[in-house]
Design the sequence.
């Protein structure tokens, strides 16, 4: 166990030094690895804390608080030891220097292309843009599929939150997709006993290795796709609508249009409170359950999962996504200048279809929301070890913006009264707010925190989120009322 902990500490030290600007060479391929900023350590999606790790007796587990504390301790210790070595003019390699194997990690061989910090960030941002677009489209598509006449669950975003949580559980627990990337970062065994136990140690360390957070493709899948696939703001919006007896419901009759809230039968406050609890409990419970199911699924199919080759990811995937991401985003912006809605198309309200323009605006604003969440996490998540402040802040800010956009869209005599204005506001809600707020990261953090801290963090997120919606949306609904929208 002590040997494993020392090996893991060496891995964390390697990533800290890399984040400070050092360039490392991939031992297997001769290619340089990424040079991510040190702030990437604050991302919680790639933290790789196993959601079901406690059932694996051969794997040491930890919590987010412990990880952040150890990272801070490693940084401070490395800094002080380096300063001491320089002050004392030591000629022999210091502890941190010897563990880093400078001949392998700080010297760039001639003929090998350098993956600079700027290029690494560009690749990461490109993956976030590309996968945020895909995640938003997946969420909107799944919502459309699960909102049908007689649907047993009327909060259609629930299934997107469940699916995104399942996927991130799979990614966090998986040890094969990025096996080659993680294996290349492991230092070689230094003793015969370590060589004999190498495979066992690697199996234990890979799920916990901080190296995952240096891979742009992994960040794109976990932070970009899963984070944009799920939506905390839509979850709290539906919770408020259930409380206000205004939740859109599709009924089993000849019309598939949602029920007009003005025609909904009144009910007492007790029923409304039960409706609020139903939305909160089902969303939180099913999302956490999906996270665990995803992790169990990764364990079940582990022996059949392929590994993404390092060179293929570096030379083809990263460069391909670079063009796809910016090209797709620019293409959506150009297409939105001439919304492709057509007269005489399928529509339940009139002879004009409006879904195409609404989707275009959603994928235009989605990358902005995803990048906002990404940088909030980088800047704020490490401020309080037991409370992911970055995720909390962007979830609450996105929730408040969702409420304001909803009010504008449903209030009389506003920009939301026109079809184009309605589509833009809907795109801001589905795209920016949907991609900026996340349930998948939230439930991953709840599973990673210690139990007491998880209750505080989860309870504060739900209470503040619903409270913000009551203040923002409630004032408009109970003040001047809402009207129907033209782009539904």
Sequence:
């Amino acid at each position: 166990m002590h040997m494993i902990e020392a090996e893991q500490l060496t891995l964390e030290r390697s990533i800290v030094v890399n984040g400070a600007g050092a360039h490392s060479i991939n031992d297997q391929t001769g290619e340089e690895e990424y040079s991510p900023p040190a702030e990437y350590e604050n991302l919680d999606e790639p933290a790789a804390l196993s959601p079901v790790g406690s059932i694996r007796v051969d794997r040491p587990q930890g919590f987010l608080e412990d990880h952040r504390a150890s990272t801070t301790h490693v940084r401070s210790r490395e800094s002080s030891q380096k300063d001491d070595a320089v002050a004392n003019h030591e000629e022999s390699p210091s502890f941190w220097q010897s563990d880093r194997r400078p001949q392998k990690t700080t010297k760039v061989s001639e003929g090998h292309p350098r993956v600079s910090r700027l290029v690494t960030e560009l690749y990461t941002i490109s993956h976030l843009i590309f996968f945020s677009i895909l995640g938003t489209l997946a969420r909107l598509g799944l919502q459309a599929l699960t909102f049908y006449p007689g649907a047993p669950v009327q909060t259609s975003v629930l299934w997107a939150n469940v699916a995104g949580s399942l996927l991130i559980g799979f990614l966090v627990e998986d040890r094969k997709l990025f096996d080659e990337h993680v294996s290349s970062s492991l230092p070689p065994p230094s003793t015969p006993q370590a060589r004999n136990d190498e495979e066992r140690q690697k199996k234990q360390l890979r799920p916990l290795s901080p190296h995952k957070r240096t891979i742009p493709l992994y960040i794109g899948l976990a932070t970009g796709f899963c984070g944009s696939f799920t939506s905390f703001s839509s979850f709290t919006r539906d919770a408020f609508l259930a409380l206000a007896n205004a939740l859109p419901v599709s009924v089993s009759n000849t019309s598939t249009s949602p029920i007009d809230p003005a025609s909904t039968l009144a009910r007492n406050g007790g029923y409304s409170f039960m409706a609020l609890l139903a939305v909160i409990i089902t969303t939180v419970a099913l999302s956490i359950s999906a996270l665990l199911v995803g992790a169990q699924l990764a364990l079940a199919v582990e022996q059949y999962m392929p590994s993404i080759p390092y060179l293929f990811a570096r030379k083809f995937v990263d460069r391909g996504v670079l063009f796809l991401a910016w090209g797709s985003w620019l293409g959506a912006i150009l297409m939105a200048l001439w919304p492709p809605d057509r007269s005489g198309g399928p529509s339940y309200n009139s002879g004009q279809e409006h879904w195409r323009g609404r989707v275009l605006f959603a994928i235009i604003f989605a990358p902005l929301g995803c990048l906002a969440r990404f940088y909030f996490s980088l800047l704020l998540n490490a401020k309080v070890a037991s409370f992911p402040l970055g995720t909390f802040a962007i979830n609450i800010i996105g929730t408040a913006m969702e409420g304001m956009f909803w009010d504008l869209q449903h209030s009389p005599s506003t920009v939301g009264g026109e079809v184009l204005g309605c589509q833009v506001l809907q795109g801001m809600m589905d795209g920016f707010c949907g991609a900026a707020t996340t349930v998948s990261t939230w439930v991953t953090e709840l599973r990673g925190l210690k139990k007491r801290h998880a209750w505080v963090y989860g309870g504060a997120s739900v209470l503040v989120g619903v409270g913000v919606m009551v203040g923002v949306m409630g004032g408009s609904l109970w003040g001047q009322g809402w009207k129907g929208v033209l782009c539904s």
Q: What stands out?
A: The chain has a mean pLDDT of 76. The chain is about 65% helix and 0% strand.
